Amino acid sequence: MSKKILEKILEFSFGHLPVEDFESWLYRAKEVEGDIGNEHYVNLISVNYFEVSQCIKARIYASKVAFMLDNELWVLFYKKFINLLIDLINIEFRGVVRNGGITLHQADVLDNRGSMYDFEAASRRDLDCRWKDISQDIIRTHPFALPFLDDAGFSYYIPAYMNYILCEIQNKMKCDEWLCWNICQALNADSSQKQSRFAMFSDGQKKAISGFLMLLALSNDDDCNPEICEKALLNYWLQVAASAPINNPTLDF
To answer: Which of 85, 91, 158, 179 has its CA 20 to 30 A from that of 203?
Structure first.
């Protein structure tokens, strides 16, 4: 098994290699078929790489092939992708403030159908001024808060939730199943109402969100809900990310 061939496949899966370059390499490099097997090779060369949905499915498929053939090399690429995403989230969501939006403890009150008095009192329990200052314990103990946030609260807490999950996967190669399921559902734009909420994000923020979903879709851990993330990407996020390029070729999700 050639390590260079697997590296090329992983470069494509994790967005470090332009699609047209990967397709050209796939047809030129005759030894690929012998290394990954005829079935995998035929599946990859049969893809229409100019069609967004086929391309994303090919990236996920190629990642699984590489994972089966060399788990350790796959993990190296996966962790590198996490580091790039954490940096991108910090850059694109810098300066984002809650700006009077619903807080996590207020979201708890709404979830439990509490009183207006409880709602007003709950805001005093969230003292953070920047999303980066939100404690990990607060995020971990509020896995169900996202659906109860208004737009201002949602845009403020989303980077904190994404960052928490990425750091957890980076350290443990595992994630909190309920927390991950809820953020995946919150970002699954399966209705025009949800899609309109995401209009508040900048182009760079949309790119970061699509990259986050791409990372989870590439995961081999079912707790990361890769199927939900793939659906979210295909339904909406790849389309908006494709129209919002950023000047970093290593983050071409």
So the answer is: 179
